[in-house]
Amino acid sequence: MYDYIKGQVTRVTPEYIVLEAQGVGYQLYTPNPYAFRVNNQLQQIYVHMHVREDAHTLFGFTSLEQRELFRKLIQVSGIGPKGALAILASGSPTHVIQAIEMEDEAFLVKFPGVGKKTARQMILDLKGKLGSLMDVVELPSAEDELPLFGVNPNKQELEEAMLALTALGYSERELLKVKPQLEEDDSLTTTDGYMKQALKLLLKMK
Question: Region (Domain III) spans which residues (predicted)?
Fold first, then answer.
């Protein structure tokens, strides 16, 4: 029904963004809402409408590849829209596709909500069936290892916290001063936790 919506982001929450287009505010659930900024610039967001008996939900994506992989993932038994969003929030489409094509179950189970059974189902259902998405992926050689999400296992949560703090008005220079301390703190595992600790550190700097 919809391919994309072009409008202005008027609100960013931990779960969704609001995109206003021609006087209508569309609630879009995205893998990482903090990838978007509230501003007056027009933004084109690719969308997918998920229809159930009790709800019609819109999902938004920064790229066409991201949306098409989302559509493939929700066709896998055991993966719903929320599960697909969690996978896309934790890894890039390229890494997910590589893992599926290389049958790397150990990599796939690192995603939230993906156990061995679901990882095997992803490989059975999707390997060799990702079509044009393969055009943007280079499969590693047998000697190479698939890249992990980063040295910090909670890198995604840390980056979300940095984006949220930027939206609150903190400068890149200020955030760069506290980021190394946050990366070294193994007790921090959530976006909220990183934000709270970052705010404490930023207040000490003033």
Answer: 153-206
Structure tokens at 24: 């209508």
- Looking at the structure, tell me whether residues 170 and 197 fall in a common domain: yes
Q: CA-CA distances (angstroms) from residue 172 to 35, 70, 165, 200?
A: 15, 31, 9, 17
Write down the pTM of the prediction: 0.64
Q: What is the pLDDT of residues 103-121, one digit of tens each?
A: 989 889 888 888 999 999 9
- Asked whether residue 183 is domain-assigned, the answer is yes
Give the domain extent around 99: 64-136
How far apart (Å, rounded) are the C-alpha atoms in residues 112 and 22?
A: 36
Residues of the chain above pLDDT 90, percent: 33
Count Cβ neighbours within 10 Å for each residue of 175-198 and write b for 16 or more, e otherwise: beebbeebbebeebeebebbbebb
Q: What's the whole-number mean pLDDT along residues 157-185?
A: 82
Residue 69 belongs to domain with CATH number: 1.10.150.20
CATH number for the domain spanning 27: value is: 2.40.50.140
Q: Number of folded domains in the chain?
A: 3
Tally of helices (H runs) and strands (E runs) in the chain: 8, 5
Please, where are the H alpha helices in 49-189? 64-73, 81-90, 93-101, 105-108, 116-126, 155-167, 172-184
Residue 138 has pLDDT above 50, yes or no: no
